Amino acid sequence: MTADKSILGGLPLFHVNGALVTGLVPLMIGASIVICTPQGYRGDGVFPNFRDIIEHFKVSAFSGVPTVYSTLMNYPAKGKDLSSLDAAICGAAPLPVEVARSFQEATGVEILEGYGLTEATCASSLNLLHGKKKIGSIGIRIPYQQMVCAELKDNKVVRICDTDEIGALIMKGPNLSLGYQLEHQNEGLWVTDEHGDTWLNSGDLARQDADGYFWLTGRKKELIVRGGHNIEPKLIEETMCKHPDVTLAAAVGRPDAHAGEVPVCYVQIADNSQVSDAGLLAFAS
To answer: What pTM did the predictor assign?
Structure first.
């Protein structure tokens, strides 16, 4: 970001991204902010005219959640000048790999997937604009904070996980909040290591590869336990998103008297799709 750039503000100003990444950061450097509507992306006409907005205001970057990118795929980019766009940033939830690839093929714009929490000032990791990008990864940690995958027990860090080993995603640094005013809301939020340092427990599960890139594998609370077997929802969701007519997928656990839980997957189908339940089940198999 530099002073000559225009940043699109599509996320609500009460959201940490709208307040900081597409709010205070552009203001600090003298860049322009284009606010879509008072309702952000949800305002009337934003998505049908999204590419016209980019072209007219020469927008260089915007942030969105996965549903923004899947929705934009319903509106062709042909004939629009998107050359001003340096990057599109995605966060808040894991971005399906197929959605990222489809968006990049349709627009020529690379999505920079990142990760952050309100409690950690919005951004904790990001793929590199001028460096290696790994589709499906949330990138490398930002400077001045630590972020690792760890084995936890009773709010204690037992050990730091090995390369590509799944563990709890924790972080520490000057970007962390001091906690909640209501004490019960702090339960499980903080963990301590052998040196007495305090880390923020994100509640997410992740692994870190040999290059330092983090990969979300799910949330501990979202694990589907079928007959004692832990199933990560993302494995099912990523598979279903490979279907050409599926724009989004969400797998959840359904209570089952025999197995405890069984996985159920909800999918959002592209406009005018004729795909059937049987067709989706066959694809899943």
So the answer is: 0.78
